[in-house]
Known about the structure:
Blueprint (H helix, E strand, L loop, with lengths): L6 H15 L2 E2 L7 E2 L8 E2 L4 E2 L20 H7 L2 H13 L2 H17 L11 H17 L1 H4 L5 H20 L12 H17 L4 H21 L11 H20 L6 H17 L42 H7 L13 E3 L4 E5 L3 E6 L17 E5 L2 E4 L11 H7 L8 E3 L21 E6 L2 E6 L11 E8 L3 E9 L6 E7 L4 E6 L2 E6 L2 E7 L5 E6 L13 E8 L6 E9 L3
Antiparallel strand pairs: 1-2, 3-4, 5-6, 6-7, 7-8, 8-9, 10-15, 11-12, 12-13, 13-14, 14-21, 15-20, 16-17, 17-18, 18-21, 19-20
Helix pairs in contact: 1-3, 1-4, 3-4, 3-5, 4-7, 5-7, 5-8, 7-8, 8-9, 8-10, 10-11
Amino acid sequence: xxxRLSPAEKTRLIAKADAACCQEFDxxxxxxxxxxxxxxxxxxxxxxFRWPSDQVSHRLPSVTQQGVDIKIPWELSRFNHAVSMxxxxxxxxxxxxxxxxxxxxxxWIANNPVGxxxxxxxxxxxxxxxVNWVVAFSLFHDVLMKGAFEGFRKKLAGSLWKHARFIHTHxxxxxxxxxxxxxxxxxxxxxxxxxxxxxxNTVNGKCWNRFAHKQIEEEMVRQVFPDGVHYECSLSYHRxxxxxxxxxxxxxxxxxxxxxxxxxxxxxxxxxxxxxxxNPSGNAPMIGDNDDGRxxxxxxxxxxxxxxxxxxxxxxxxxxxxxxLDGTAAVGCSSATQSAAxxxxxxxxxxxxxxxxxxxxxxxxxxxxxxxxxxxxxxxxMDGREVFxxxxxxxxxxxxxxxxxxxxxxxxxxxxxxxxxxNRFGTRLFGVEDExxxxxxxxxxxxxxxxxxxxxxxxxxxxxxxxxxxxxxxGLTITETVAAAEPGDVLCWFFHLAPGLTVRCIEERVExxxxxxxxxxxxxxxxxxxxxxxxxxxxxYGVQEDAKTLTVEYVIGDALPNHAYQFVISWGx
Length: 573
């Protein structure tokens, strides 16, 4: 690691670790916040709300009041920053990083008795914290094994033992038909497997290890479709779960407990999916929910960069994020260049030498927990520049209205009828019933046609929406067909522009500009009204950026069995 990191990367890593030593954190869009005295592990420092530390964890409400986000104290207590401090010690040899790690862990243990307070409310966070403590301890091993730290080693081991027992008795799974398990259950197992190996010389450790190994093998088959897409159909959660599967695979390999060939094969398909969905910059489209969750992170890579997860192809590129997960030093650094289809997960990628189009068309998601109303939505990347994008997720429980806005139909590049939602949300902030039942009709290397039967709140018999996308050398043609529409219906199409892009409207043509230079042209069908308005883009959890959205509106005048419309996005030479 020391040899492969560039001077700039070393500087950034040291700066991140220095901030953590000074108790300064920037989490989930909070901006830089520094604890003045001791760290308050129960505080949402973004809103100022504090959860009581003396109440039984499972009785604490996860949703309290507007603007309060339980994920802030959870994220801090995952201790991802401890890995950064451990890496900084490896780079510099400065004992202050080890001393800060010891001080923070001891303070956390003293102020978070097992089963009390917000940081024992979710076994997933308990598990991720345990993994980060173990990895940080391993990085600090040379200094922490000295006699001066014997007391700390006993405290750490004692707390990790309690972490393992807690996870084992609070697994977030209620059986094969449970809607809630998913990435939470996999996190629990990852923590338990890691701790089982950490305590491998004990009877309990051996039991935890065997149980978790067996269940992780089963979860690979249960949670990952045969084509390699994680069944929550969110690229952010695909990343998180792939990190955990890769970490467990690496541990199993190095300890002679290898998983099956089927496990390994599906893991490779998950990595290939990453290679197909990442843009040339390495950033992933924000399809489905996104909370920036990670198992291990150095903090060096941009939050949206997923390249470190791709299959190893030994081109010499070094990603520290990958090195943390499985010890692999060289991985591919560019996305796949061929069109690809993932019918089990409902993802399609049309690619040529100028453009990449990502299309969502298929099953909604497992239980709809992290699903958005994005069926038949697309993202366009041209010459490495993002043009039309998904708006992201912004926040979860801290703002229910914002939560629903960012997962709604209007936040995606789709058509909407009379303001209806593709799928109705009801009162749940997590979970959507798949009313769209999207299906692919025709698919080839450079084209895709699909349909869905959503907008059921309109109570229209035979309602159906079709979209066909044809990618050519000079542009993208989008053909829309609407069945069961009635005179007076208002159709709206949304085209969400990436931050930094502006537009110039000339009658039925919309010129899209990047730094005042023409990028591409959107040609709209006759009779449509084009409106340009602001719609904040959320590139990561809790963060918003200014961005423009094109809304194309059309009022149906004639009664016809089917109504057809066409958009042409051209970029010429």
